[in-house]
User: Fold these one by one.
Assistant:
Number 1:
Amino acid sequence: MSSKNLNIAALAGDGIGPEVMREAIKVLQAVGRKNGLQLTITEAPVGWAGIDAAGKALPDATLELCRKSDAILFGSVGLPDRDPTIPKDQRPERAALLRLRKEFGLFANLRPVVLPKALAHACPLKVDRQGDGLNLLVVRELTGGMYFGQPKTTETIAPGQQRAIDTMVYTTAEIERIAHVGFKAAQLRRKKLTSIDKANVLENGVLWRDVVTRVHKEYPDITLEHMFVDNAAMQLMLKPTQFDVVLCENMFGDILSDEAAALAGSLGMLPSASLGNTSGEITFGLYEPAGGTAPDIAGKNLANPIAQILSAAMMLRYSFGLTAAAAAIDQAVATVIAAGLRTGDIFNAEDKSARRVGTSEMGDAIAAAI
Ligand code: IPM
Ligand code: MG
């Protein structure tokens, strides 16, 4: 596999996207040299950068590049100051990110949430609720449910009165395929899966619970637990150590993954993978940090590049099966954290061994640790 040329589309996007992407590319090049990989990384504009360059959040040439690539390394898109100036369906979130997810059938979203012991101070929970450090994985269904269901409209029903409609819709097959992803992920972890639904109220919840229960029969080594989404939101705060894999439909996963992310202290630490189908040895995927564009700190060399760098590691692991190269990146990040390097979001002034660094210095140190 490593002898093959791997084509990566790097879409940095807006806000802090370009500066964290620069560091991820630096680290990929370092790991490529070290492990003898042939990585061809091609950059293209997306989001407001796409609108400014070619009039569209997802320019045709960018989409074409993605089609020819083996994986997409994505930064982040959307600028709250500019978004309201164009129609909703042309804004970066819908026109670029949701479009790419749908276009490439990226139905499985993996969001690992890890709080290393060294960053205990950054977690909003008391230390005695953190166990030996937190480590859970949100598996979120990404191309179904309310975000894509039709009808999706706003209509005027009387003067000054509108009605907005979103539709929550799932089929058995959609639930089955994400359930398999969840159970397989649990097999590689602590062998527990908590399936989230609202089966006490929603038809979708009843179907979700039935299908997950049925798929579970193929995974007798996994402990399955069902939990209502409102209770799950509370349990994540009260006892996050009870979770291993958390399996959710699209909207519940969107919400709970942000809540879980808060436990890791900073969105700047969290990568994600959005996976489609596998063909041959390659699983097409889009890899992006969990945080947004953070326009307030953009261009100031303040952003934490670790989420973007760990997203590149997930790409090597999940799309290309390059386990050793991916582990080398994870290890380099751990080494640099252990050495005390901290961007502002994870800096603790009381920790005398911590040293505050900027985006590029953090990237340099991780590349050097490869
Ligand atoms: C996420 C984001 C997106 C989502 C937005 C930007 C459309 O919140 O990836 O979680 O809701 O899926
Ligand atoms: Mg979200």
Note: The mean pLDDT is 95.
Number 2:
Amino acid sequence: MARIVVKFGGTSVATVERIRQSARHVKREVEAGNEVCVVVSAMSGKTNELVGWVNEASTFHDAREYDAVVASGEQVTAGLMAIVLSEMGIQSRSFAGWQVPIKTDDAHGAARIVEIDGTELDKRMKDGWVPVITGFQGVSPHNRITTLGRGGSDTSAVAVAAAVKADRCDIYTDVDGVYTTDPRIVPKAQRLSKISFEEMLEMASLGAKVLMIRSVEMAMAHKVRLLVRSSFDDPDAPQLAPDGTPGVPGTLVCDEDEIMEKQIVSGVTLAKAEAKITLRDVKDNPGVAAAIFGALADEGIIVDMIVQNIADDGATTDITFTVPDSEYDKAIKTLQAAGTDKRIEYARISGSKGGAKISVVGVGMRSHAGVASSMFKALADKGINIQLITTSEIKTSVLIDEQYAELAVRALHTYYGLDRKDA
Ligand code: ADP
Ligand code: ASP
Ligand code: MG
């Protein structure tokens, strides 16, 4: 007998019929003698609709009310899932985040989970109940509903799994695992039977939205093994062993030590809508980078790639960095204002929207030279110009023009031998 937290994403609960299909996976686990706790997302498209309504009501809305509105989608699916499970003969009860309670900080719209009291969930499961928890949300120290940021139900599931000491956390979605790249972009992408926490963390932060970044961080910290699988698979088909035996659908996200065969490159990721900004002839004094990025951080603007050149004349330098397209205008205004009142001294500012960040990820890069150079060659062969480069221990990223993004991903996928052999 195992204790499993099972999470269903938006497409897995998109309609009552889909909820019924997903519930059959829960039923199978319960009938196998497992204790199960469910975490649900809102019906697919629902959160976007709710966000749209909030913005229509007012562009300058209070973040506490944004959370009150957008958290409602999950309340609907949690209740429906509990009803459907009960109808199947499984004792089930829904819990909103605040009822568990899932305690968060008060950063509305992007709250972080601080603590989960698993007592009630633990008791229910021991008594043979299946609790169904609303993903994506919790309660602030001021007793208000908070949400965790888009895609946050993955994080809710992992946090609940850690709190109830689950043996596994199964993430049911619309693909049957984590692929070498987004299978919607590259049909030749291959499913990985296992991927390390570290690689998954890089892939998630570089654009693979199959798992939210925070959820992987949390799984890594609490050693929660994740199994990414599809709710569209037949619930009555023979099941994957908990150790992730290959040949059955799903990807196990686990410790690197559990993976025997380490790839040099495990995946290729793509993140679009990246804007680049360059400050020219910046006074090269100590504290200048702190002043630039401090001004942006004060406005809540998240900066990604950063490149600073060596000062040719010993007095000035150029700094280039990227921000999301949606933050571009705000970032330019912030830096112009900081230039006007001399908080930052520079000669010119320029930039453009519409970049794409393409990355290759793999733990094997630690011990193999030449991954970066071969990536640049593969892109050069396709005539794709590289605008910026950043590297870390297990990834290399480049910024290119958005219009070549898919071409670049496909070229790199083929170059590193990741294409499915039968495709
Ligand atoms: P859910 O609603 O279940 O949380 P998401 O839409 O958030 O599902 O995530 C699943 C999607 O992630 C897939 O449909 C797929 O297009 C996309 N995706 C991006 N990169 C990858 C990848 N490397 N492997 C699998 N899926 C990926
Ligand atoms: N419903 C939320 C969203 O669409 C949370 C989630 O699906 O994980 O972002
Ligand atoms: Mg998701």
Note: The pocket of magnesium ion (ligand 3) is lined by residues 9, 151, 154 (CB under 6 Å).
